[in-house]
Design goal:
Blueprint (H helix, E strand, L loop, with lengths): L2 E4 L3 H13 L5 E4 L16 E4 L5 H8 L8 E5 L21 H11 L3 E7 L7 H10 L4 E7 L12 E7 L34 H8 L7 H9 L3 H15 L11
Parallel strand pairs: 1-2, 1-3, 3-4, 4-5
Antiparallel strand pairs: 5-7, 6-7
Helix pairs in contact: 2-7
Length: about 250
């Protein structure tokens, strides 16, 4: 039961290893290669795969939503620069448009559930249409929503597109009962920079990074990270709609 994290930035990759060692995110290995260099067979044996992993926000979000470390899932937050108002906005012509590389791995390994995130502005560039078309062509059911960080009381909007793809949606009854203990497992014990209020967020990022102040790498990592609480809310909505009941024997963080 091991997770795979793919993160090309060496600084963020080491941060991921620190978080894994501290037990804040699912145990696993960190691969610093480009996603374009990964072959599908190399992913055999991993329970969860997190691409463009950043600071492990998807792993934390899954735990906050009660999703067990032992339950298979793939996640990814493709680079936003081709679509962001702060980036080049050259869309799918940008070499950092890496959805095709990720989709190649998805097509070959066919994970049952995929969660993803992108800047909301990508919708206007046809990004979601392309992603949805690719996945639906491989028999996935797709759901998506634009949610803002302000929904979790952040002092800014930070609109993001969240999507889920499910290859088993039509194979299981939607009438199954859903009852389980409080799904926000371990939230009070997670000593992570996303906890404790937005005014202290950057300071807590620095603390996790051994107190290095005003470090460009640390600031970039924090800026590019997803907001796990929003991701967790999206995951919980999917779990509720899917009527999933986690088995008591599954490990939950």
């Amino acid at each position: 039961m091991k997770s795979y994290y793919n993160e090309i930035d060496p600084y963020a990759a080491q941060w991921l290893r620190n978080l894994i060692d501290a037990g804040h995110i699912a145990p696993g290995v960190v691969d610093e290669r480009s996603i374009e260099d990964i072959t599908p067979n190399e992913l055999i044996g991993y329970t969860q795969c997190h691409f463009f992993a950043g600071l492990g926000g998807w792993s934390l979000a899954l735990r906050l939503a009660g999703w067990p470390d032992s339950r298979p899932v793939w996640t990814g937050s493709c680079p936003c620069q081709p679509f962001s108002v702060a980036g080049s906005r050259t869309g799918i012509d940008d070499k950092r448009h890496l959805w095709p590389a990720w989709f190649h791995l998805i097509r070959e390994r066919k994970p049952s559930v995929i969660f993803g995130e992108q800047v909301a502005n990508a919708i206007g560039h046809g990004w979601l249409d392309g992603v949805g078309g690719d996945l639906e062509g491989r028999d996935y059911a797709i759901g998506a929503a634009v949610l803002s960080a302000s929904a979790e009381d952040a002092p800014h909007r930070r609109d993001r597109l969240w999507f889920v793809a499910d290859s088993e949606w039509n194979k299981q009854s939607r009438k199954e009962s859903r009852s389980w203990p409080d799904r926000r497992v371990g939230g009070q014990q997670q000593l992570l920079p996303w906890e404790g209020g937005w005014q202290r967020a950057l300071a807590r990022f620095r603390a996790l990074d051994h107190g290095i102040p005003r470090c460009v790498e640390a600031t970039d990592a924090a800026r590019n990270a997803i907001v796990p609480q929003i991701a967790a809310a999206f995951i919980e909505s999917y779990v509720a709609a899917r009527c999933i009941q986690f088995d008591v024997t599954e490990q939950v963080a």
